[in-house]
Design brief:
The structure holds 2 protein chains of 2 kinds.
Chain A (H helix, E strand, L loop, with lengths): L25 E2 L6 H11 L3 H16 L23 E2 L13 H10 L3 H7 L9 H12 L4 E4 H7 L1 H7 L10 H9 L4 E5 L9 E2 L14 E6 L4 E7 L10 E2 L2 E6 L4 E10 L4 E10 L4 E10 L2 E4 L2 E4 L5 E10 L4 E10 L5 E10 L4 E10 L7 E10 L5 E10 L5 E10 L2 H9 L4 H17 L4 H16 L4
Helix pairs in contact in A: 1-2, 2-8, 6-7, 9-10, 10-11
Chain B lengths: L20 H10 L24 E2 L6 H7 L8 E6 L2 E6 L8 E4 H7 L1 H7 L10 H10 L4 E5 L9 E7 L4 E3 L2 E6 L4 E10 L5 E11 L4 E9 L5 E10 L4 E8 L4 E10 L5 E10 L4 E10 L5 E10 L4 E10 L6 E11 L5 E10 L4 E10 L3 H9 L4 H17 L5 H14 L4
Parallel strand pairs in B: 1-7, 2-6, 5-8, 6-9, 7-10, 8-10, 9-11, 10-12, 11-13, 12-14, 13-15, 14-16, 15-17, 16-18, 17-19, 18-20, 19-21
Antiparallel strand pairs in B: 2-3, 4-5
Classes of the chains: A alpha/beta, B alpha/beta.
């Protein structure tokens, strides 16, 4: 490994040579009022029920307190009046690849991001040039009756399916940020998989070509009808050009009888971003929902993907990797709500804290009374790299019913000095040895990611480690 | 819900000037009632905290009967018996020279410097500061034990706190100060004289100087509909070892808070608890293992067996402060679920601010093993009795950690009687 270059992934996106003048065709302006909602609804040509839904959500958002009685007080630093809640450009922004700073280009190279994707990720193009690849997938799944469109298209063109499930898994008032999202959402995906259809290709969010796709308040709804299977992937390992500081997505999954949904997220936010996301799935009888979640970067991420196991033998799973760099706080975890007999869930969480980074596991496992045959297994392991690194674990477990069982285990450790010594003896530089050790720590989870993601993830960990080992 | 609590009928002792009970009561009254929104009261049954109807504890009717009932282990180094907040018996004749074992108010007068340094010196941090203020404002006596440096008390010291009368309120207090390299075992008993509903708000503070060894066992047997707070803090200095065991065999709604602070290198704190809970009883336990000094160890194991509509809450936190390198901390709660209506809640937490540590925690929930039941049933033991035997074994595995053999046997016997397996 070349340890000469130390690209900093947390580039300051405000530096002059990496800011673009973009003329947005639609801009709701600063702050959030009913007028903002009307503006968004007008631009998006929302049906009346959505307009009402948004306004109701706004009222809930305004009435709910910040959850700082348990969450980080850093939330108090979000100035809601200074945020633009809706921006969209009608045409592709005019930016030049030459404007992209050299270290960002180098990072893309190190991560092995394909050429066309790099431009997209750097914000040079609103869409990257892979229309062909996308069209192929679209044609392949379209023939099976799969609907894969933006959330706006979904609610306008498929109201009969959309309306039935929208806001049902995550009610508007679930938390302050789900209320915010419900008020101003735009972008995100709507996916419907017909009964029995097993989608071979993973559906990737950034293949869907749409400047709104990475919106601040995206809203995704995936419905897998009986016996169907789908894998959805969002994000990527590269740092993304980002000017907005608040991201608050809501993702709802519905797996009907016997369906399987895998939802894979790999996100690497810049260090000024608040990433406050609500993700939850509803698993019916014999259905399976699996969240694979990798969080890197951001100032504060709060995200606890959940599964409500509503039907018998439903299964929920959360696989989570979090890497908290210097000054960052990854507050992630999982929620498992068992609401039917013989439901099983599994949570495996691994976190790494670098420098003054802080990673937190926050979990909730509930098995209701009068149920039987329910099982939960939870494992959380944390690795601390530097003396000032921090990790916390805050699970809450309520298991009722004498035919149910759960186990929870968590451990905290630092990198094994003997391992590092062993590798150094064999001529591996210390930084590389540390990277290997960290990669080893998350290896069993990384293998659950699709191939290209796991390769990128390993490289990303190498990169993050380089800056933190003296 | 009433937030005031009646005056005590006992004459207030002549506390030192700095100890202002009126101010404590004011603090109690001005501190808001906890709500479930407070993290330290999550899952708690706040409505059960009402102090409506509790009255001052009258003088007990028959002191002799309670003294006889306080036979305890039979062999002890010293004994103190309190009934309805008053000392009714003390015997410190078999203690080594220099050991101070006196009622709290005597300590306040005759050992003023020690008393001032240690009496409620550690603020209550785990949620019940309101009730700590109430205790401070109402306490009239208690046990004060000081073991001088290099002194070993071979036999256990026994302390009994009785409550008698309908809705009586008691404020038991135990303060133990272990000098450098001293060694002592204390058994603190909390009992109902008549099985009537009562209110108890107790504090027990343990201070260990470098190299001290303390085994502290609290056995709580209040009546089945009593409300009780037991607030503990344990400060362990360099090379000292504290083993504390809380057995909640009784009580209706019990809130226990245990804070162990490891302030010296290689200090060790062992925090154990056994809780057979049945009926509609609720045992709410909050713990903190606070690693301030490097190379200290702590080990927490809490066992709950829940039957009927019992509720338990375990919220524990291992906190490793910056610089507490070489920390080795462990925390485990195990819930044995014996009925469909039982409601165990576990919140095992970690906050690690230092990298060179070994910390882990675990929480398990599950029923009695069918294999074990089958094994016992195959040998002719009815299923229900077999289940109780297994529960007994579940707790005995923890009692094995008590190294004093006679004390261990005594506790096992108490437990067996509680579970009706003896």
């Amino acid at each position: 490994m070349n340890t000469e270059t130390k690209p900093d992934l947390n580039i300051d996106r405000s530096v002059g040579d990496f800011s673009y003048d973009v003329d947005y065709e639609f801009d709701a302006g600063l702050g959030l009022t009913e007028r903002t909602i009307d503006y968004i609804s007008d631009v998006k040509k929302d049906p009346d029920w959505i307009r009402e839904f948004r306004k109701d959500a706004l009222r809930k958002f305004e009435s709910m307190p910040m959850p700082t009685h348990w969450a980080s007080h850093d939330l108090d630093n979000i100035i809601f009046e200074n945020i633009r809640y809706y921006l969209s450009q009608g045409t592709a922004p005019k930016r030049s690849w030459d404007d992209v700073p050299a270290d960002v280009k180098r990072t893309f190279e190190r991560l092995g991001i394909p050429e066309q994707e790099r431009k997209f990720l750097a914000g040079v193009e609103a869409q990257f040039d892979s229309e062909a690849a996308y069209s192929n997938i679209k044609a392949a799944v379209g023939a099976q009756g799969v609907i894969f469109v933006g959330s706006t298209d979904g609610l306008q063109k498929h109201p009969e399916i959309f309306r039935k499930w929208f806001g049902k898994v995550i009610p508007t008032g679930d938390n302050k940020f789900s209320a915010l999202n419900s008020a101003v959402f735009s972008g995100g995906s709507f996916i419907y998989i017909p009964p029995g259809v097993k989608v071979k290709h993973p559906l990737q969010a950034y293949f869907r070509i749409n400047a709104e796709n990475f919106g601040q308040f995206e809203r995704t709804l995936i419905i897998a009808d009986e016996g169907s299977e789908v894998m959805y992937m969002e994000g990527c390992t590269a740092p993304k050009f980002e000017t907005s500081t608040l991201h608050s997505a809501v993702v709802e999954l519905v797996a009907l009888k016997g369906a399987k949904i895998q939802y894979i997220t790999v996100q690497n936010w810049s260090a000024n971003v608040f990433n406050l996301v609500t993700k939850r799935g509803l698993a019916h009888e014999d259905a399976e929902i699996k969240w694979i979640d990798c969080n890197i970067g951001s100032r504060l991420t709060m995200k606890y993907p959940g599964v409500i196991m509503k039907g018998r033998r439903a299964r929920g799973e959360v696989i989570s990797i979090a890497l908290a760099g210097d000054g960052q706080h990854q507050d992630t975890g999982a929620k498992m709500v068992h609401a039917a007999d013989d439901t099983t869930s599994n949570i495996v969480s691994k976190s790494i804290s670098l420098g003054k980074g802080r990673s937190t596991y926050r979990g909730l496992v509930q098995i209701g009374r009068h149920l039987k045959g329910c099982r939960n297994n939870t494992e959380c392991d944390a690795l601390l790299i530097n003396t000032e690194s921090r990790t916390d674990t805050y699970p809450a477990i309520t298991i009722r019913g004498k035919e149910n069982a759960s186990q929870h285990e968590a451990s905290v450790s630092k990198i094994n000095a003997e391992q590092i010594f062993y590798m150094q003896q064999r001529g591996i530089p210390k930084a590389a040895a540390m990277s290997l050790a960290v990669n080893g720590f998350v290896n069993d989870l990384v293998q659950q990611f699709p191939m290209e993601y796991s390769v990128e993830l390993k490289r990303l960990i190498d990169l993050e480690m380089e800056g933190s080992v003296g | 819900m009433s937030t005031t609590i009646m005056e005590n009928e006992l004459e207030t002792p002549a506390w030192p000037e700095w100890f202002d009970q009126g101010a404590a009561i004011q603090e109690y009254e001005s501190t808001p009632q906890p709500t479930r929104k407070d993290e330290s009261w999550r899952f708690a049954n706040i409505a059960a905290l009402s102090l409506d109807g509790f009255v001052p504890a009258p003088a007990v009717s028959n002191e002799g009967r309670l003294i006889v009932a306080s036979a305890g282990m039979g062999k002890s180094a010293a004994k103190m018996i309190f009934a309805n907040n008053a000392l009714i018996h003390e015997d410190a004749s078999r203690l080594p020279d220099g050991v101070v074992f006196v009622p709290l108010e005597v300590a306040a007068r005759d050992h003023a410097a020690l008393f001032k340094k240690y009496f409620m010196a550690q603020p209550v941090e785990l949620g019940s500061h309101k009730y700590a203020a109430l205790h401070k404002g109402r306490v009239t006596s208690g046990a004060f034990l000081y073991v001088p440096p290099d002194t070993e008390v071979a036999l256990p010291v026994e302390i009994f706190h009785w409550v008698e009368g309908a809705c009586s309120s008691v404020f038991p207090h135990t303060l133990i100060i272990c000098g450098q390299n001293s060694q002592v075992t204390v058994v603190d008993r909390f009992q109902s004289a008549d099985g009537l509903k009562a209110f108890a708000c107790g504090v027990n503070d343990l201070h260990l100087a470098p190299g001290a060894r303390l085994t502290y066992v609290a056995v709580q047997e209040w009546s089945r509909d009593s409300l009780a707070f037991h607030l503990n803090s344990t400060i362990v200095d360099r090379d000292a070892v504290c083993t504390s065991l809380t057995a909640n065999l009784g009580g209706g709604t019990v809130r226990g808070e245990s804070l162990s602070r490891l302030v010296g290198e290689r200090a060790r704190s062992e925090m154990y608890s056994i809780n057979p809970v049945d009926g509609t009883r609720e045992i709410d336990q909050r713990t903190l293992q606070d690693h301030v000094a490097p190379n200290a160890t702590s080990d927490l194991l809490y066992l709950n067996a829940l039957d009927d509509k019992a509720r338990t809450i375990f919220a524990g936190l291992i906190k490793v402060q910056p610089g507490a390198n070489g920390t080795d901390a462990y925390q485990k709660v195990r819930n044995l679920i014996l009925s469909d209506e039982a409601d165990p809640n576990s919140m095992p937490g970690l906050e690690i601010l230092s990298d060179d540590v070994r910390c882990s925690h675990g929480a398990t929930n599950g029923p009695v093993s069918e294999d074990e039941l089958f094994y016992l049933q195959a040998r002719g033991i009815p299923r229900e009795a077999a289940s109780r035997l297994i529960v007994n074994g579940f707790f005995n595995a923890l009692l094995e950690k008590i190294s004093d053999e006679e004390l261990r046997e005594y506790l096992m016997d108490l437990l067996a009687r509680r579970l009706a397996v003896s």
